[in-house]
């Protein structure tokens, strides 16, 4: 089976310099292994999606010479697949309905003497594991105390960051599979879609590294294969925070696509092009970058 990688943007706005870094890394990784590269439009969070943004992102990728090997997969067409996965988890006793609001969770944690740290994970205390605590079901959660992949420390190797470990049950708690607003949660959608697309290698930004243990545990709960993971360096804004659409990152400047790719390559740690005059064309630079990536991350 050929290696298969993917780039999975959310259409909440155009690509910026940070998202090009993630797109380029996933494309280089697939090409360096003689594999296929796919694009998945993660538009499951419909309230945040901007009309026309997905088409614009695909045009931006094409201008950079990054063409998927198959038509893009749109998460908004995948509701039935997510529902089937949730039903499987419910049937196996690993998912349950939850009536807790954020305020309920905060009060429960406070009663346990656990103070929530800003930007930290709010660990769900399992309030509704044995039945709804009160009111109607708002969301569906995965029980993390039953399956060994979630209840015990999970260890894996990140191809850039090295050895990683996390116990999901204690670090995260029972996480959401279907949100209170009826939308599918990222963790469930990405696991189901990676399996459906046959993804063998996930290359994405380092800000998503903390999701890996949840996704690997969920893969095991659903009997799905686990890809290999590589998390790339983040592109930071002037204030030191991650460059993102939510922080108002400027749209990627593609007046010179080659220059944009060269900046992305430098952010990924690729060495300068060996020619003193630089690459002759976009295709020339991409071909060289594939070889450079292989030297960094692809073992013979």
Automatic annotation (TrEMBL):
L-glutamate binds at residues 6-10, 42, 186, 204. A motif ('HIGH' region) lies at residues 9-19. One of its GO terms (molecular function) is ligase activity. Keywords: Aminoacyl-tRNA synthetase, ATP-binding, Ligase, Metal-binding, Nucleotide-binding, Protein biosynthesis, Zinc. Pfam families: tRNA-synt_1c. Binds 1 zinc ion per subunit. ATP binds at residue 245. This is Glutamyl-Q tRNA(Asp) synthetase. The gene is gluQRS.
């Amino acid at each position: 089976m050929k290696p298969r990688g993917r780039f999975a943007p959310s259409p909440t706005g155009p690509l910026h310099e940070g998202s090009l870094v993630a797109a380029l890394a996933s494309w280089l990784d697939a090409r360096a292994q003689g594999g296929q590269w796919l694009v998945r439009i993660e538009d499951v969070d419909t309230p945040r999606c901007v009309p026309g943004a997905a088409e614009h992102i695909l045009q931006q990728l094409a201008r950079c010479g990054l063409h998927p090997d198959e038509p893009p997969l749109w998460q908004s067409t995948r509701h039935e697949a997510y529902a089937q996965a949730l039903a499987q988890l419910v049937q196996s006793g690993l998912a349950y309905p939850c009536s807790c609001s954020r305020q309920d969770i905060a009060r429960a944690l406070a009663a346990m003497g656990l103070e929530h740290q800003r930007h930290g994970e709010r660990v769900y205390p399992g309030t509704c594991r044995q039945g709804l605590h009160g009111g109607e079901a708002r969301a569906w959660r995965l029980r993390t105390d039953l399956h060994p992949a979630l209840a015990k420390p999970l260890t894996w190797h990140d191809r850039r960051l090295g050895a990683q470990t996390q116990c999901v049950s204690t670090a995260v708690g029972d996480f959401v599979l279907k949100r209170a607003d009826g939308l599918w949660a990222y963790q469930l959608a990405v696991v189901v879609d990676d399996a459906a697309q046959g993804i063998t290698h996930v290359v994405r930004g380092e800000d998503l590294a903390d999701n890996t243990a949840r996704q690997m545990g969920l893969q095991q709960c659903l009997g799905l294969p686990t890809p290999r993971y590589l998390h790339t360096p983040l592109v930071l804004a002037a204030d030191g925070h991650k460059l993102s659409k939510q922080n108002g990152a400027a749209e990627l400047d593609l007046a010179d696509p080659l220059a944009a790719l060269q900046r992305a390559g430098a952010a990924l740690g690729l060495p300068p092009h060996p020619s003193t005059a630089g690459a002759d064309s976009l295709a020339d630079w991409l071909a060289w970058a594939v070889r450079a990536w292989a030297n960094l991350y692809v073992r013979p």
